[in-house]
Design a protein that fits this description.
The chain is α/β, with parallel strands linked by helices. About 40% of the residues lie in helices and about 15% in strands.
Length: about 375
């Protein structure tokens, strides 16, 4: 049931609110004003109205997957990352097939239907290595959805093998890869990206990889890591690039924003203070209003914790992300939040909403769900 926006009569707030609730598109300048000037509770209520316009019931979706980081060896030198090690490091690892198989079996044992495979930009892994991995997974675990790699990994493999981005993606798709996560976006726009994502693909290349994936019929997600050294104008331009591509292809399923986690990173000294929960909610609400061609926005409880994740459901989010049995990248930077399926369902219900399990394409795996607290 919709809750009305608490508007103040007159002024820019009311005029902008009226246009947004009519479904009109806002400009980057208006998004920047919302980011910098809008009263937070009003902005959150507005984002919630937009969410209800796109998903007009109390359903909040989630999925069960496992994030398998197959290697931490990486040729990039991202200053925000505490996970990677250089190729010469004695602390580098590559998971064996037996280790990957064991992790997938554990996922299957709890009813998981999707695996997220990501790693560093390994200097020796050519297209054939990934094709072999996807084929083994597909053969041994039929029906498992393979949500794999990231745009920077696709770019690295393509360069190593002398292939185009489209050719690389087509080969991976033929080998069993189903969809592409939005990782590696961080802040897409210059000059921020060049400073924080050293050795990684640039913003236009990230966009082009997703464009080529969409042309192959792959659905992908879009992300933004904020709160490092960028300004509000960089965040809005990042969102503009995503909205423009979605206008062109319609291939993104969802948007996810999360704040930079500074501990154990080279960028920590440059950040005066980590992004607060209030800043996170503001960024998410602006994103929900601005990304008018995205159907879904995920709450980032993995970085913000369960309580803020619940609040985010009233600031534009309609999805609670994933059970995520395993997470290594964010946790390497000192942030660790874990929720199993029961706790996710309970968190959604305590927010007054109905949890529903989904697939990557937002296909509902259950339409009628029993309460996680029934009989308790």
């Amino acid at each position: 049931m919709s809750t009305s926006v608490d508007s103040r009569p007159g002024g820019r707030d009311l005029a902008l609110e009226t246009r947004i609730l009519r479904g009109e598109r806002i400009t980057p300048e208006e998004a920047l004003w919302l980011h910098e000037e809008a009263e937070l509770s009003w902005l959150g209520a507005l984002a919630h109205e937009v969410r209800l316009g796109k998903n007009p019931d109390s359903r909040v979706t989630y999925n069960i997957d496992r994030n398998i980081n197959y290697s931490n060896v990486c040729t990039a030198r991202c200053r925000f990352c505490a996970f990677y090690v250089p190729e010469t490091s004695p602390h580098g690892y590559v998971l064996s097939w037996e280790e990957i198989r064991g992790k997938i079996r554990e996922l299957r044992a709890i009813g998981g239907n999707q695996v997220l495979l990501q790693g560093g930009l390994h200097p020796d892994f050519k297209v054939e290595w990934y094709e072999g991995l996807f084929r083994r997974i597909r053969a041994e675990f039929p029906g498992l959805w393979i949500h794999a790699l990231s745009a920077p990994e696709i770019v690295a493999v393509a360069r190593l093998c002398g292939l185009t981005f489209g050719e690389t993606l087509a080969r991976f798709q033929a080998a069993g890869m189903d969809s592409l996560p939005g990782g590696g976006a961080e802040i897409l726009v210059p000059p921020i990206r060049e400073e924080i994502a050293v050795g990684k693909c640039d913003g236009p290349e990230w966009i082009e990889v997703h464009r080529q994936a969409h042309r192959l019929g792959m659905r992908t997600t879009a992300t933004m890591m904020f709160g490092s050294i960028e300004g509000p104008e960089h965040r809005v331009l990042h969102l503009q690039w995503l909205r423009d591509l979605q206008d062109e292809t319609g291939g993104f399923t969802a948007f996810i924003a999360w704040p930079f986690q500074p501990d154990h990173t080279a960028l920590k000294k440059r950040v005066k203070r980590p992004a607060t929960a209030v800043e996170y909610l503001r960024v998410q609400a602006v994103s929900r209003v601005f990304l008018d061609n995205f159907d879904h926005v995920q709450s980032s409880w993995v970085t913000m914790g369960e309580k803020v994740g619940q609040i985010a459901l009233f600031y534009g989010a309609d999805d609670f992300g994933s059970v995520m049995m395993e997470e290594n990248v964010v946790s390497a930077a000192g942030t660790v939040h874990h929720l199993d399926e029961e706790r996710i369902r309970l968190a959604v219900e305590r927010a007054g909403m109905k949890p529903v399990r989904r697939g990557m394409r937002y296909d509902m795996l259950e339409e009628t769900v029993a309460s996680a607290t029934a009989g308790s």
